[in-house]
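Example 3.2
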Amino acid sequence: MSKINSTREDFESLLAESFAKQDLSEGSVVKGRIIAIEKDMVIIDAGLKVEGRVPLKEFGTKGKNAALKPGDEVEVYIERVENALGEAVFSREKARREESWTRLEEKFNNGERVEGIIFSQVKGGFTVDLDGAVAFLPRSQVDIRPIRDVTPLMHNPQPFEILKMDRRRGNIVVSRRVILEESRAEQRSEIVQSLEEGQIVSGVVKNITDYGAFVDLGGIDGLLHVTDIAWRRVNHPSEILSIGQTLKVQIIRINQETHRISLGMKQFESDPWEGIAEKYPVSEKTKGAVTNITDYGAFVEIEPGIEGLIHVSEMSWTKKNIHPSKILSTSQEVEVVVLEIDPVKRRISLGFKQTLENPWKAFAEKFPIGTVVEGEVKNKTEFGLFIGLEGDVDGMVHLSDLDWNRQGEQVIEGYSKGDVVKAIVLDIDIEKERISLGIKQFLQGKIGGGTILDDLRKGSVVTCEVAAVNDNGIDVKLVDHNLDVFIRRTDLSRDRDEQRSERFSIGQKVDARVTAFDKKTRKISVSIKALEIAEEKEAVAQYGSTDSGASLGDILGAALKKQDKD
């Protein structure tokens, strides 16, 4: 009997020594021994003054009860050393959680995956049991693509990767998507290695967007861009393709780093741009259908796969600021002229207005220079009037061509939009699309009292009266014709020292020579310098060459004496 008591004492002393080494404070995990199991409670001695109770269910796992018996050693979490009932309060779940946190932190630091079970749905995601520790699985981290029903994934053990851990706050965030992406990346890499550019493969259309279609090549997707579906313009891939359709495509490019694959279908057909310059020579007319209209022009398909652009500037001779849709419409059959071809850039410039009669050319043929025309004042500007003419073209009357005697700035105030006026065609520039008109020239050459300017011609000598003196010349009036003319500074004298406008005074009369005169436009130029040169030449011709020994001054002096004597 004494031997039994001695053995019991030894065991109790060893157990007490073991417990004495543990941290028995609240919040710590300790080892205890099961003393008894009563109904659904497990009674545990952890070396405290009193035993504690733990619900039996805390020792089981999901759906399984633990096989426990008295004498088993277990770890528990001390919540209270002694409660109001005089018992210790233990928790097996919290102990397991602490164990799990320690194990999970080690795996997180080593970059290892963990296994868990999705067991509940919460706001923004799901909760996952990581062997006692509860983690949060965001909805965006469940799968590579959003999934509607997560039921098949719940309550099944599966791998996860820990994204973030915060033990102090008790937060763990995991991802299932990362593992799937890694697996998919490995699979994609294997597939990409088996493919090569130029290879022809079959695939199934998975998705259609505005810019193309994604084709499943058996585990990896390739992009069939809208421009590679056909040589002709395809406004939207859905015009040709449909989801689920099986296609034969050619691999155009493979990016080994990003695993992006570009596909093409038009490559199975011959390139319509080959020999395009010989087929459509510049300036040749051809026909096509309008496929698209933009703010800057209209695209015309002249054959399948070949489109050219009619720029807005090449649509109309006269309508400059108008939207292309006001002139052409989609699907309209039109005749165009080839203006330029760039086979390298695959661009063709087309002209639509070139197929129509050039109204500037037609106007020039019908109303040559000198013809009287009639039109409505379309616009007044600081430099003249714009007159609407036949053929929907405009002509301009410059300020200087409004009146013979008055300043143009004053005369233009007497005109208003809508006034119908008559004018003479002064000049036509078909290339620049310009028509110059003159209203003052329409006065049938009648100046002052109505004298016709028939006596004026190039080389005539006229008497001028100075009307104004300017820095760059003088304004004069032809005395016999009542016509205002400007004499430039360089035409004031043959002698450069005498080319000073200030040596003239208002009212002074001088003679000058007509250097230019156009009866049709009534434009006249006169020069004092030209008259001096002409008189000198005449004197030399009459009194001999300077080779006779007489100076030029002697000859001119003799000529002047003769004029005085006469």
